[in-house]
Structure formats: structure tokens, C-alpha cells
Amino acid sequence: MTVDQIVGFILELDKLKGVTRKVRPLGLERYENSAEHSWQIALLAASLAHHAAAPVEADRVVRMLLVHDIGEIDTGDTMVFVEGGWEERKAAELAAVKRIFGLLPEPQGAAFLALWQEFERGETPEARFAQAVDRAMPVLLNLANQGQSWRENGISHERVVRRIEAPIKQGCPSLWSYLEGRLEEARRQGWFGA
Fold first, then answer.
1. Average pLDDT rounded to a whole number, residues 122-141
2. What architecture does CATH give domain 3-189?
3. N or C: which end of the chain has fewer CB within 10 A?
4. Is the confidence at residue 81, as pLDDT, over 80?
5. Stated pTM of the model
């Protein structure tokens, strides 16, 4: 493994900082980027690991979350609450991560690709927990921002619940218990779109 290959890979990852998402960081007028999102959910997962539905290897979850959005360098971000087109989106992301992880020598590139695929399949306790945390973070920011991206993008309470309830319940039931009441209060406050 050459340092040159690793540096090339890391500089390619810098492009994730330019992938804009639809929710604003607390107290800021700009939108967050995908690199910030990945960092934040990695720390959320490390902090919540003892609440996972099943015992998880927290370090594996953190590594999974650090690679899960790397394909967005080529594809851009799709808001979690968007409905439809996911098969095409995931095929494009797979091609992107194969390209990006291919910048690394074997077996490191293959190991990162395997983590990305594990997250996507959602079959292990670590992947289910990682998916729960990933789905929860935009909700937590929207709750803290009085529904900013839900209102701006016309996202209803029903659509949010439909998209996040099952994966969060499956991966981290106590996190869903926390969010369920908060989402209902947000609905009463009028923090959702049409």
C-alpha cells in the first residue's frame, strides 16, 4: 500500500464536503454537507451503541457510517424522505463507491466496499443499528430547527413516520420511543409541510 494511493483516496473524499444536504446545522443559515452528516452520526452511534436492539461492535458501526455516504461524491444527496427511484439511486451509488474505493489498494478498498454493502443490505445487527442512526439524524436536526427542511420541502408527518419508523424501531427501539413523542409534538406545532 503506497502513501500516494492513500493520499489520493483521502483527497477524493474531500469532495464529500461539497455535497449539500437539505437540513441546516443548528444556528447556521447554510445547509449541512454529507461529510458533516457522516461525522455526526458516527458520534451519535458511538454514544447510543448500548441502546442498540442487539449487541453491536461499535467500532464496526462507526466505520460503516463513515463510508455509507461516500457514493454521494458522484451521485449527490437524496433527501431521506423522497419516495421512489431508490433502485436507480442505489445502483449509481454502488458504481460510485466501487470507483472511489478502487483508488485504494487491495484489501483495504475491498474492506471499505464490504462495509458499504453491509450497511445497504441491513442484515447484521451493526447495519440495522447504523441505518437507525442514519435515519434519525435528519429528524433530530429538524426537531431542533422547528421542522426547517420538512416545511421547505413539503414533507408531511405521515411521510416522515413511514420512512423512518421501521428501520429505527428495528435497529434502536429506545431511539424510536424517544422520537415518536417528539414527532407527534412537532405535528401539533405545525412543523411539517403539506
1. 97
2. Orthogonal Bundle (1.10)
3. C
4. no
5. 0.94
